[in-house]
Write a structure and sequence with these properties.
Radius of gyration of chain B: 13 Å
Strand content of chain A: over 45%
Largest sheet of chain A: 7 strands, mixed
Number of strands of chain B: 9
Distance between the termini of chain A: 31 Å
Order of helices and strands of chain B: EEEEEEEEE
Distance between the termini of chain B: 37 Å
Shape of chain B: globular
Oligomer: heterodimer
Strand order of the largest sheet of chain B: 1-9-8-3-4
Strand content of chain B: over 45%
Radius of gyration of chain A: 13 Å
Largest sheet of chain B: 5 strands, mixed
Helix content of chain A: under 10%
């Protein structure tokens, strides 16, 4: 158990809908990262927040957005869902924001768009 | 971040040591070598990381060559639960960019 929690574990929804994925980092961690893992793309970095502020952006679609709240939990919002958004979404956390800092991953949310 | 090259797959007998190679010939002086593994759609699990020196923890050992162009992850006594995809990643060790860049990894199958 990494100490990172994600809810829900599974989500099934229809095209065009909007969903929110939630992540609680390990106690004391200030950075939260979101990754997407689809069958054909592998694990891809989406976005990073550090202490409430956006820190880095990766391959995140404009239909997707995220935020980190004062209690440091984070939410990833996915809207106008398409079939291709079906994937595993992982959240990771680390103490600080930088490259020498170990990231610990949550168990993921499996999103299925029908 | 420097790119890494790993074998696509490896088999290992239960109880034997598993040696997983990784090439990172373009690694820079401030880049760390990280290893993670992913067991069938679970969240990636941190294993170990190092900069120059060899490292050991309760899970594994990391051997980095003197020129830092390659490394080997050693699982000393593989068990069936070590069957997973293992990712070797190099990351810049400063404050600027925190993402992990995952490649395809090595699928390790531990057999009885």
């Amino acid at each position: 158990d990494s100490g990172v929690t994600q809810t829900p574990k599974h989500l099934i929804t229809a095209t065009g809908q909007r969903v929110t994925l939630r992540c609680s980092p390990r106690s004391g961690d200030l950075s939260v990262y979101w990754y997407q893992q689809s069958l054909d793309q592998g694990l891809q970095f989406l976005i990073q927040y550090y202490n409430g502020e956006e820190r880095a952006k990766g391959n995140i679609l404009e239909r997707f957005s995220a935020q980190q709240f004062p209690d440091l939990h984070s939410e990833l919002n996915l809207s106008s869902l398409e079939l291709g958004d079906s994937a595993l979404y992982f959240c990771a956390s680390s103490v600080e924001a930088g490259g020498a800092d170990t990231q610990y991953f949550g168990p993921g949310t499996r999103l299925t768009v029908l | 971040d420097a790119k890494t090259t790993q074998p696509t797959s490896m088999d290992c007998a239960e109880g034997r040591a598993a040696n997983l190679p990784c090439n990172h010939s373009t690694i820079s002086g401030n880049e760390y070598v990280y290893w993670y593994r992913q067991i069938h759609s679970q969240g990636p699990q941190y294993i170990i990381h190092g900069l120059k020196n060899n490292e050991t923890n309760e899970m594994a050992s990391l051997i980095i060559t003197e020129d830092r162009k390659s490394s080997t992850l050693i699982l000393p006594h593989a068990t069936l639960r070590d069957t997973a995809v293992y990712y070797c990643i190099v990351r810049v060790g400063d404050d600027s960019w925190g993402k992990l860049q995952f490649g395809a990894g090595t699928q390790v199958v531990v057999t009885p």
